[in-house]
C-alpha cells in the first residue's frame, strides 16, 4: 500500500522496506536541502504540541517550510481550546479541515491513535505520553546507519529511564527489527515495560540483557561527593557500539520524592568515555539534564547533536511521502522484512465494559472513546489496550477460572 495518505502513529506502521526507502530519500535531502523545494507547495502542516518540545516541533516545521509548504501551530495547550475542555477528537476534526497533515504531541498515551481515527488527513505521532515516539526512532536508526553503516549485529545499550522514555520504547522495536542487539540499563523502578519486552520476545525472539542498576555493570561504588552519580565504567562502556542515553522523565513521576530517588543517578563522564570503543556512538534524543557530561561534547563519538540535525532530512522525507509529493521506491529485497501484524480487536463478551486501567491512557480521560483490547499472545487471560498497549488481566482469571 502506498504511504501517501497513511498515518504514522507507531513504529509498527512502517515496514522495514519503507523505512529503508525513507532513509534513502532522507539521504537525498541531506545532500541537497533544496532538492524538492517546491514539492509541498500549497500544502499546510499543523503542529499541535500539548507538551514541551524544541527539536520535534521545530524540525517538523522547518522540514515543511523547506519543502515549500506552510505551517500553522498550536505550540501550547494553554493557548488552544484544549484549555477550555475541548476533546482530542473535536480538535483534530476541526484542524483537519484547515490543513493537509497533522503532527500531534499529547501527554495521554494512545492520544495520537485517537487523533488518527478522527482526522481525515494523515496524522503523525510526535510523542504520546510515555508510550511511543516513532519519528524519533526514524532519526535514531538513520543516525546509526549513517554513522556506523549497519544496524544488524550492532550492540546498543539503552540507558536511563526506560519505563517512561517513549523514545526508548519505539527504538527498541526499531533496533530489533533490523537485527541489532539490545541491553537495557535502567535504575531500579525505571526498567523497560513488560509490554515492550513481551513484544520483543514474541515477534523477534529477542530477550535484551537487563541490568537492575548501573552498579551491576560498574563494579565500583558511586563516586563520593554531593551527587550520587554512577559513572558508566570501563567494563560496560567497551561492550557497546552505541550507548543511547535518556534523561529521567521528571514530568511522568507521581511525586517529587519518587523523582528525587532516581534523579542524577547516572552520567556518561569524560573518564568513562575514554574506555568506550574508539568507534562507539553516544546518542541521546535530547534534551539532556545531567546524564551527559558537557566535557564529552567535543569528542567525535558524542553523536547527539548530529543525531538531532538528522531529524530535519528524515522528517522532510516522511512529510513529502505522506503528502504524496514523493513516491517511495521500496526495493524488492526489502519487501521481505518485518510486517506489522494486523490489529486484532477482541470480542470481550461479558467483559464488554472493561476499561483500560492505565490512568494515563487516553481512553481513561476522554470519555467518548470506546476501549478496544487485543489478545496478548504470550499471557493467557491478559489483554492489551489497543491505544496505549498497557496489559491487564481479565478480572476472573485474576481470581480463578473463567466460568
Ligand atoms: C524526547 C521526547 O520528547 O520524548 N525528546 C525529543 O523529542 N527529542 C526525549 C525527552 O524528552 O527526554
Mean pLDDT across every amino acid position: 89
Total strand segments: 14
- Range of strand content: 5-15%
Query: Roughly how much helix do the residues carry, as a percent range?
Result: 25-40%
Overall SS class: alpha/beta
Low-confidence stretches are 218-231, 397-403
Distance between the termini: 43 Å
For the sheet with most strands, the description reads:
5 strands, parallel
SSE ordering: HEHEHEHEHEHEHEHEHEHEHEHHEEEH
Rg from alpha-carbon coordinates: 21 Å
- The helix count comes to 14
**What small molecules does the structure contain?**
N-carbamoyl-L-aspartate
Shape: globular
* Largest sheet, spatial ordering of strands: 7-6-5-9-11
Structure, briefly:
With 403 residues, this protein is an alpha/beta fold. The protein is 33% helix and 14% strand.
Could you walk me through the main structural features you see in this protein, from its secondary elements to its overall organization?
- The structure is a single chain.
- The protein contains 14 helices and 14 strands.
- Helix content is 33%, strand content 14%.
- By secondary structure, the protein is of the alpha/beta class.
- The protein has helices at residues 16-31, 55-66, 88-96, 111-118, 134-148, 166-177, 194-204, 214-217, 234-237, 256-262, 270-274, 304-322, 362-365, 395-399; strands spanning 44-49, 70-74, 101-106, 123-128, 155-159, 181-185, 209-211, 230-231, 242-245, 266-267, 281-283, 373-375, 382-385, 391-393.
- Helix 2 links the parallel strand 1 and strand 2 (70-74).
- The longest helix is centred in the last third of the chain and has 19 residues, at 304-322.
- It binds N-carbamoyl-L-aspartate.
- The site of N-carbamoyl-L-aspartate (NCD) has 12 residues, from helix 2 and helix 6.
Amino acid at each position: 500500500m502506498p504511504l501517501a495518505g497513511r498515518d504514522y502513529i507507531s513504529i509498527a506502521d512502517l515496514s522495514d522496506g519503507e523505512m529503508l526507502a525513507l532513509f534513502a530519500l532522507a539521504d537525498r535531502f541531506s545532500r541537497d536541502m533544496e532538492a524538492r523545494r517546491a514539492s509541498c507547495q500549497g500544502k499546510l502542516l499543523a503542529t499541535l504540541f500539548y507538551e514541551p518540545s524544541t527539536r520535534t516541533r521545530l524540525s517538523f516545521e522547518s522540514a515543511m517550510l523547506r519543502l515549500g509548504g506552510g505551517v500553522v501551530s498550536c505550540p501550547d495547550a494553554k493557548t488552544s481550546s484544549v484549555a477550555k475542555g475541548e476533546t482530542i477528537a473535536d480538535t483534530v476534526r476541526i484542524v483537519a479541515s484547515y490543513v493537509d497533515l497533522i503532527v500531534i504531541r499529547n501527554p495521554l498515551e494512545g492520544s495520537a491513535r485517537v487523533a488518527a481515527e478522527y482526522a481525515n488527513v494523515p496524522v503523525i505521532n510526535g510523542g504520546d505520553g510515555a508510550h511511543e515516539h516513532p519519528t524519533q526512532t526514524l532519526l535514531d536508526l538513520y543516525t546509526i546507519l549513517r554513522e556506523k553503516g549497519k544496524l544488524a549485529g550492532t550492540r546498543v545499550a539503552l540507558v536511563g529511564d526506560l519505563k517512561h522514555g517513549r523514545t526508548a520504547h519505539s527504538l527498541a522495536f526499531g533496533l530489533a527489527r533490523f537485527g541489532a542487539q539490545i541491553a537495557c540499563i535502567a535504575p531500579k523502578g525505571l526498567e523497560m515495560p513488560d509490554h515492550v519486552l513481551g513484544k520483543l520476545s514474541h515477534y523477534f525472539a529477542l530477550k535484551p540483557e537487563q541490568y537492575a542498576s548501573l552498579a551491576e555493570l560498574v563494579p565500583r561504588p558511586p563516586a563520593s561527593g554531593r551527587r550520587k552519580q554512577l559513572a558508566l565504567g570501563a567494563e560496560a562502556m567497551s561492550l557497546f557500539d552505541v550507548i543511547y542515553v535518556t534523561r529521567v522523565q521528571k514530568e511522568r513521576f507521581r511525586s517529587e520524592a519518587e523523582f528525587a530517588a532516581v534523579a542524577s543517578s547516572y552520567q556518561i563522564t569524560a573518564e568513562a568515555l575514554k574506555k568506550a570503543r574508539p568507534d562507539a556512538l553516544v546518542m541521546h534524543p535530547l534534551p539532556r539534564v545531567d546524564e551527559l557530561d558537557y566535557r564529552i561534547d567535543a569528542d567525535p563519538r558524542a553523536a547527539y547533536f548530529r543525531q538531532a540535525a538528522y531529524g530535519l532530512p528524515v522528517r522532510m522525507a516522511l512529510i513529502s511521502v505522506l503528502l504524496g509529493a514523493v513516491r517511495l521506491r521500496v526495493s524488492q529485497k526489502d519487501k521481505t522484512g518485518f510486517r506489522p501484524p494486523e490489529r486484532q480487536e477482541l470480542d470481550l463478551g461479558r467483559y464488554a465494559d472493561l476499561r483500560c486501567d492505565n490512568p494515563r491512557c487516553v481512553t481513561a480521560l476522554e470519555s467518548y472513546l470506546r476501549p478496544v483490547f487485543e489478545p496478548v499472545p504470550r499471557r493467557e487471560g491478559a489483554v492489551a489496550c489497543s491505544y496505549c498497549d498497557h496489559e491487564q488481566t481479565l478480572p476472573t482469571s485474576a481470581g480463578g477460572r473463567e466460568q
